[in-house]
Amino acid sequence: MKKAQNGTTAPALLLSACLLAGTACSTTQPGTTTETATTEQTTEAPAKADAPQPPVAAKKPKELTAHGHTRIDNYYWMNERENPEVIAYLNAENAYTKQVMADTEALQEKLFNEIVGRIKQTDESVPYKKNGYFYYTRFEAGKEYPIYARKKGGLDAKEEVMINANERAEGKSYYAAAGMNVSPDNRLLAFGEDTVSRRQYTLRFKNLQTGELLPDRIPNTTGGAVWANDNKTVFYTMKDPALRSFKIFRHTLGTPTSQDKEVYHEADETFSTFVYKTKSEKYIIIGSSSTLSQEYRFVDAANPTATPKVIQPRERGLEYSVDHYGDSFYIRTNKDGATNFKLMKTPVGKTTKQNWKEVIPHRPDTYLEEAEIFKDYLVLQERKNGLTELRVKKWNDPKTDYYVDFGEEAYTAGISINPDFDSKVLRYVYSSLTTPSSTFDYNMETKQKTLLKEQEVVGDFDKNNYEAKRIYATAKDGTKIPVSLVYRKGLKLDGNNPTLQYAYGSYGISMNPGFSSVRLSLLDRGFVYAIAHIRGGQEMGRQWYEDGKLMKKKNTFTDFIDVSEYLIEQGYTNPDKLFAQGGSAGGLLIGVVANMRPNLYKGMHAAVPFVDVVTTMLDTSIPLTTGEFDEWGNPANKDAYDYMLSYSPYDNVEAKDYPNMLVTTGLHDSQVQYFEPAKWVAKLREMKTDDNLLLFQTNMEAGHGGASGRFQPYRETALQYAFFLKLAGITE
Fold this sequence. Notes:
Blueprint: E1 62-66, E2 69-73, H1 84-100, H2 105-117, E3 123-124, E4 128-130, E5 133-139, E6 147-152, E7 159-164, H3 165-168, E8 176-182, E9 188-194, E10 201-207, E11 213-227, E12 233-239, E13 245-252, E14 261-265, E15 272-277, E16 283-289, E17 294-300, E18 309-312, E19 320-325, E20 328-333, E21 342-347, E22 357-360, E23 367-373, E24 377-384, E25 387-394, E26 397-403, E27 411-415, E28 425-432, E29 438-443, E30 449-454, E31 466-474, E32 480-488, E33 499-502, H4 520-523, E34 528-532, H5 542-546, H6 554-569, E35 578-583, H7 585-596, E36 603-607, H8 613-618, H9 629-632, H10 638-647, E37 660-666, H11 675-687, E38 694-699, H12 713-728
Parallel strand pairs: 33-34, 33-35, 35-36, 36-37, 37-38
Antiparallel strand pairs: 1-2, 3-5, 4-5, 5-6, 6-7, 8-9, 9-10, 10-11, 11-12, 12-13, 13-14, 15-16, 16-17, 17-18, 19-20, 20-21, 21-22, 23-24, 24-25, 25-26, 27-28, 28-29, 29-30, 31-32, 32-34
Helix pairs in contact: 2-12, 6-7
GO molecular function, one term: serine-type endopeptidase activity
Region (Disordered): 27-63
Pfam family, one: Peptidase_S9
């Protein structure tokens, strides 16, 4: 089941979607002492002739004590976002990176132009039909931001521009729009705007008939608003000072926001709340979610002032999600030990778990990711052997049960936007490491598929020039770890290929083997690209996630290392040509691996990395920390503290050689605070014994997702690729 269009909770450390964030850090956690008065300034190493010299951060020792154990954090002062000394340090690091990479500036420009040159300038999404209108997003040549538009009745009708984000972004260093939810009568648009990159959106409303922006303005939301069926009432989610989604409010258009009614308050700091509307448009669902438990309430969309009713009270370990069809709620759940989840249904009038009846049973070898309900068909998105499958069932004919055939060895597929209950056509998206993202309409009755659009790669791209492969590395405990590979055809397994190995490995997020036109800039220069499907993700089912979290978290790190060793053993690469990359929770992965096996890699890129695990998880004032306890552990418990301390990258930096490293972050990151990588880099500079590159780049105007806009983020990609190519000795 899709959790919903607006305000869904995501894992805190997902680079597109997931992380730890916050404002100024406090040290009010139990067992922590105050800062010592000592301030020490380190001295610079003797300068090499004409060589750029890295910044040297001031050391200001601070004692952090928990469970009778004291750590000294020399760089805790970097938490102070408004401190001019902090800003000066970040700017100095940026200047140093620019100096060191000056010899690649022409290459960076070439890479940027290559990447952008493959993108079709004038482009638009495949329209989907809802309530009599076709909705789509389009881009104009040379413009950074999308235009959100619709057409009434047919695709040849006159275009109505709902929001031109290029106009809304004028004069702003950062801009992001979200939500885009139209009222049931098609007259009004609700949308969110973020101009800081802290993922705190201001809700706005537009009259689509007159083009007028309404005076209603609601700050500090998740960006989405859900319409009741009266076309004037909306439900929205508010964030607390730690950026946790903690309250649901009801707003009536034209009234002061001070009169908004608080509908629900999620008081448990380990839960976040969200709101959405069922596909049937009949119910508004208010959800609360933590890593291991969910709870849902429902309100009749035709009676928005009614008191929400609980579907099933929360129980630790009971996970479920909800959609509606006919007279029943359909529930995807792990109830009764269904590790890989099953599908159940229950009458709207009797919703507690004792009334749930099984629709799709649990299967030990198949993980149920999602279900899409149609009038005549049920479509299941499943994951088996690391690959997604789409299964079609007919309600009134149990024998009609089949899988959509995709015909490739390694691919990713998923249910797309399907708002129409009555349709016999399923819309899905498909991609592989060699096949650009494609949108299909699939007739579930005739089994005929229609390609609506394949992502156009501008230039001389030919997918037949590339080869994709799925191999399996054996972990130290005997577990087979899937690895997806892509490279130019004709590759020789002589151990001499530059190889970039990527992984994430947290929150049960599966890294699917999808296409990237950006990646071609590496493949065409001889790189092998490898996705390591390590434990902590969910590629091989729910147990794959369970075996890579909490007190089994180290499996994530050792799996990555075992994949690296296997790639070397199989002749793909060697330690002088192997590079590693990860972001957010994947940046934690890079930090741990850098400490564990630094000699296995030529270079590493850690993006917005979660590297100060213990200090962050002890500080509940930092955004999203409390909701992370079921993922990493609660260091207020000594066993968890000791385990997390044993791998936390910042706490385990040692006086030894490290590989070449590029670390990137955003000053306004709302997930992983900029000061985690800043402190980590400062400590690495102090401790490491090598002369390898250590570069730190902070986007001073962006957050967790980097720069805004369609093209500007690729400036950062060009820097990353130039870093790898420089180390690989490739100058063109």
